[in-house]
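note to self: the first set is below, dont mix up w the second
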Amino acid sequence: MITLEDIKKNPEVQQLILGSQEELNAMGYTEHSFRHIGIVSNRAGAVLEALGYDERRVELAKIAGYLHDIGNCVNRIDHAHSGAILAYQILKDMGMDAKERTEIMMAIGNHDEKTGTAVSDISAALILADKSDVHRERVVNTNLSTFDKHDKVNYAVTNSNFTISKENRKVILDLTIDTEISPVLDYFEIFMDRTMMSKHAAKFLNIWFELIINDTKLL
């Protein structure tokens, strides 16, 4: 069976990741490369593992997390859809079972808040993992004077903790935001759609999504 380690060693995957970040750098976007996909892969797997899913299901969630942003190499617009198709073909070429690669395609194709929603346990875990990665380390632009609102909000997040409570059946995103850089209200202006998508993804898994900012529970 194809594993995450097999995916990481695939030169085609590596080049798509590098190409995706190169394109996003040119557009002035935040980091979507190895740091981000590593975090998303780990968190997606951790969500299903904590909820008692079997080892293979956890592995598929990790693979979906690692591949979810390769569509940015085609174009930022509809990157979820193009990435899903790219991932399906790569996994097919690697010999992955048709049912498994279809599951991963579904998850990747539904991870963007503009066009997607939770359609499976893997897609729900991917959404929760992807939308939780808010942190100043994602800001590629080093010139603070040219920050747009996305840069400011991400850069203002000095600490980001994502935890899963199996006992209370909830996932918790706990953020520390430096309000001298960006007010908390700007976070919601930019990330409200992502926050609501995370809430619905958690509901799909029969758990609760909790958001804490600066020690205040907001959701």
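second set (the one i keep forgetting abt)
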Amino acid sequence: MRDEILKNWEVRSAGRQKAYKRLLQRGDKNAVLRQLPRLHEEAFEQIDCTQCANCCRNYSPRFKTPDIKRIAKSLQLKESELIEKYLRLDEDGDYVTRSAPCPFLGADNRCTIYEQRPSDCMRFPYTDEDVLLKRPQLTLKNSSFCPIVYYVLEKLVLHFP
């Protein structure tokens, strides 16, 4: 059974941004980091990403050079063809998808290049690593569209009021 904490999570997350920000800025970093592996696993037991896919529908990962090489090879494209067809440079000079949703998101909410997906996708939602604390603005943004980030932050706020 899904955890009660997930009911109306989008609305609840919006109302809890200040509490999350306070936790990320003032919380005991080491104590929080120790909790992340357990909470990450717990969140993934509660939430099926393929039921959501908000990350793939609305945002793009960075496609780094090794990602581009790997994906182009798997799709039997030249790197330049992959870039021309699917990617663009953003304001930070990173390659991102030309469109949303991600062109590699299938109708079943599964990634069609899952085994070769970009490293940002492999690591997302960063709930088992220090990025959660080191990049608070990213974490807060992610909590607004990713139920897993919301779940982990909510559990942390309850544990570290």
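remember for set 2: Residues 13 and 64 are 31 Å apart (CA to CA).
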